[in-house]
Specification:
The protein has about 120 residues and is an alpha+beta fold. It contains two helices and seven strands.
Length: about 120
């Protein structure tokens, strides 16, 4: 299976931030195409239906957006940009859908800001 930045995938064991347990969850592929094609892993950002109001490290995907059906998600969700992780491509269950380029750009900018802000 080939993965593109912006794909939403379902994985069976997404780690919680505290790394004490895991559960199945959708995630956004944020790593670039060349990285995805040439290695065994992907960089993912978990997606949650729990919206944390005031959390500047998330990007919300509104169910009212015209392109929401393309995501494969069921409800309004938040991409957790402060919780990215590497995950083996071979462990991805399936692709659910994809986000619009504007959403991917927002996520990328938030991740860069998180990594570069002192």
């Amino acid at each position: 299976m080939s993965f593109m930045p912006g794909d939403i995938v379902l994985i069976s064991h997404a780690p919680y931030t505290n790394r004490l347990s895991a559960k199945a969850r959708p995630c956004l592929v944020i790593s670039g195409f060349q990285f995805n094609e040439n290695g065994p892993d992907l960089f993912l950002a978990p997606i949650s239906s729990v919206i944390r109001y005031g959390d500047t490290k998330q990007v919300v995907i509104e169910s009212s957006d015209a392109s929401f059906a393309d995501t494969g998600l069921r409800v309004r969700s938040a991409i957790k940009c402060g919780a990215i992780f590497a995950y083996s491509k071979s462990q991805v269950c399936r692709k659910l859908g994809l986000v619009q380029s504007q959403i991917l750009e927002q996520v990328t900018n938030k991740v860069i800001d998180i990594l570069t802000t002192d």
